[in-house]
Amino acid sequence: MKLVDESELAAALDAIKPHVAALDAAVAQSKELLEGNILYMHQSTELNPKNEAKQRNLLSLAASLPVEDSLVIEIGFNAGHSSLLMLSAHPQLRIIAFDLCEHSYTRPCFNILADAFPGRLQLVPGRSQQTLPRWARENQLRADLIHIDGAHEPEAAKADLQNAKAVARHGAWVVFDDTCFSPLRAVWSEALEAQLVEPPSESITFCPTNRHGIARYVRAPARRAAATEDLLWELAPILEHRGRMRHVLVLAPTDHGQDSLLGYLSKHRLWRGNQPATSKKLCSNNTERHQSAWLSLPLRCDLPGDPFPCLVQLVAPHFSNLQQISDCFPLVDGALVVVDCAEGLTEEFCQIFGKAMTQGLQPVLFLNKLDKLLSLQGDNELCYQRLAQIVDRLNDIIEESPARLSRLAVESGNVIFGRGSLSVAESIGGWGFGLDDLVAAQATRKHWTADQVAKLKPRLWGEHFYNGRSWGSSGERGFCKLVLQPLREIFTMLESATPQEMQQLRSLGIVPKDDLVGNAWKQSAMEAWLPLVDILVSAVANKVPAPAAPPSNSVFYAARCLQTTDGQHLALGRHVDPQRIAHLTLPRAVPATIGSWLLNGPAAVPLSTLKASPGTMLGIPVESASVGAITVG
């Protein structure tokens, strides 16, 4: 979680001034005195400077929630100032507010915000100690953040804190207001001691303040110690939240490097843990792929400041089977495009890439085997031209698509350079970088200041040249001078490997593994410096959107049936909008049993104890195998 600074808070407050003015006018029209809130003193519209820390914390928490499927439960709406702050911080956040509605200004203020943020705000009137438990029983929605600022009587506040756990997702944040008052501070301390809630980890920073408490609801403390090694314990918070999932199709012009990349990612980021005893092994599809065995690869991505990882589910059909690839389009929301930058694109691949773009799949490009290109082409400028041609050609196809997709832009982080891995068997040597990653590494090596880094970043791609004295339209291209040439120098040093050179490389973190030789030894040094697995999976998690909520009339669409070693058939798919597959004539399969499975590489894991979020990619048991896409139901 990134804590907003004072300037960012000032900008946020400035942006909501028109809404604040409208709320203030509604309060004034009511002739009632305004209760104290996150902006103002009690019974006043005078700004309260003591609440700045609260404002920064709440704004940061709301902004940190997943873009899709995030919900806040607020107990105590009053005039809506806290709701306004959170709604303004997040583009899609929904808030369900519980309020006694004893003030005549509450409903008019709610109406103002409901009009300003249509479909994102709901009011539940009544005493929260009764309305919240009833709402929890009648609704399946669960919240990522609970903001408690309701009744100040200790017993009522304690009931709100306890009742809210029933509407909280696993590990949801809870902000308990007004801990500056000793009775409420005692309620908060008791909740911490009883392990109802637990403080945030030391890696997450908040503004210190005594005016509210921030914690997370504890997940089943009695069984947590025994369950933390269980796969489903780890997966539950993710599978129950669409915003923490990414469904991504792997596309490549050739098989060169794709299989070794998938093997490398699987080795380092496939979900680990004790699987239920009823899990099953999947039959390998080695007869259809060159080497990679599994169609579905759910990878773990740990994002900075977030205690819960993101699930990046790669779908990897055979690179040359156009029908299999097309069948997978409805399953995914993005594409990881793996291109051997020495070999480039093929016309057939450009056609299938164009079809994927027409389906609205947001791409992330991995320019693989950069070391191969540098070894084959000694001229840095020609290497740059080769890379730029690939990016430009794909961007031309993106622009021809009717879907609104972000272009591939090296400076934005959706283009990664590097080397996937040496082989499927070894799964070592995977290294890579976006421009920000390499600049950070170079800044350490060359002792650049923050100002120098800020000036250099825009010059690392495109028509930016350095003539030895200044930047302009002539000289050596920035990407060649500051990216490609330093890489060549590092490879040269690894080749000669003198004691002095190795000491210099070790100071940068470029340290090869002792038990390797030859090319594997050199590539392992690059992996130690710029580990690809974190950089590439994070780029996918940050750039590909989460799955959208399927409509109420959704159908389960499966791209493929896979078989377990005991003969059961599982249809890999997810619920989709019928309009997305309306152009297809599809056979319909009958579910064999009730229940769903997670296809985790070589294993099928039963989800009998989990209720996966709508839109999750799952395996559904069917009575018989089918070739090609089907619907189930």
UniProtKB/TrEMBL annotation:
GO terms under cellular component: cytosol; ribonucleoprotein complex
Entry keyword set: Cytoplasm, Elongation factor, Protein biosynthesis
GO molecular function annotations of the record: GTP binding; GTPase activity; ribosome binding; translation elongation factor activity
Pfam families with a match to the protein in the record: GTP_EFTU (PF00009), Methyltransf_24 (PF13578)
Domain of life: Eukaryota
InterPro entries on file: P-loop_NTPase (IPR027417), SAM-dependent_MTases_sf (IPR029063), T_Tr_GTP-bd_dom (IPR000795)
Domain Tr-type G: 330-398
Protein name: Elongation factor 2
Organism: Cladocopium goreaui
Organism lineage: Eukaryota, Sar, Alveolata, Dinophyceae, Suessiales
